[in-house]
Amino acid sequence: MSKKPWNEDCNCLDCELQGKLMCNPRLKYSLYFGLPMLLGILPPIIGIVISEFSLLIKILIFMGWLIYALFFFMIWESRIICNHCPYYSDDSQKTLHCPINKGILKTSKYDPRPINSFEKIQFIIGAIILIGFPIPFLVIKRQYLPILFLIGGTVIWIIVIQLKVCSDCINFSCVLNRVPENLRNEFLKKNPIIQKAWEEEGYEIK
């Protein structure tokens, strides 16, 4: 990219994409993404805390969930989703500056090509494991209400980010991305390296 997407000093006044895409790390995107997520995360946490598991088992469950989350975000997701994002493009930066995964360590190389089917499948599997990690433990102790809240909260979270975040996100490779084709094409035209990589994979700009 000719300009770092997180550079607040970029002159966007003459760009028709201003305010339409997540070219700058605006706080609103972090809030839209993070706050609704609590609807799905808090119920299973509370369910495990009040369950009849011993304190040691509870600690081990939360540690396992945290360790997997760190592995997923910093290793797995970084290598199959995040590394296709323009925010990943500056090799001099060791952490991400996007409003969603800000501060996450970059553990892969930037790949301007669109995501492939195998990477999509990996992401879906990894995300399901992350979200569903506490479910088996809740089932063991018959904590079914937190499971329902987890599922319901996750559905609400997906709806919110689809409407408020994924419709503006410049990581067009993400499985959840919902940027309209015309805006995606305009962005690609402004970023010839990405455009070339996409066209080499068979993408056509109409």
Number of strands: 0
For the record, give the distance between the C-alpha atoms at the N and C termini, rounded to a whole number.
Answer: 21 Å
Judged by helices, strands and strand pairing, the structural class is mainly alpha
Give the helices and strands as they follow along the chain: HHHHHHHH
The unreliable regions are: none
Shape: elongated
What's the domain count? 1
- Radius of gyration in whole Å, from Cα? 19 Å
Rounded mean pLDDT score: 91
Percentage of residues in DSSP E strands: under 5%
Quick tags:
single chain, mainly alpha
Chart the SSEs and their pairings:
Layout: H1 27-34, H2 38-49, H3 55-80, H4 117-132, H5 135-140, H6 144-164, H7 181-189, H8 192-200
Q: Would you mind describing this structure in some detail?
A:
This protein has 206 residues and is mainly α. The chain has one domain. The protein has eight helices and no strands. Helix 2 packs antiparallel against helix 6. The radius of gyration is 19 Å and the shape is elongated.
Short description:
With 206 residues, the chain is an all-alpha fold. It contains 8 helices and no strands.
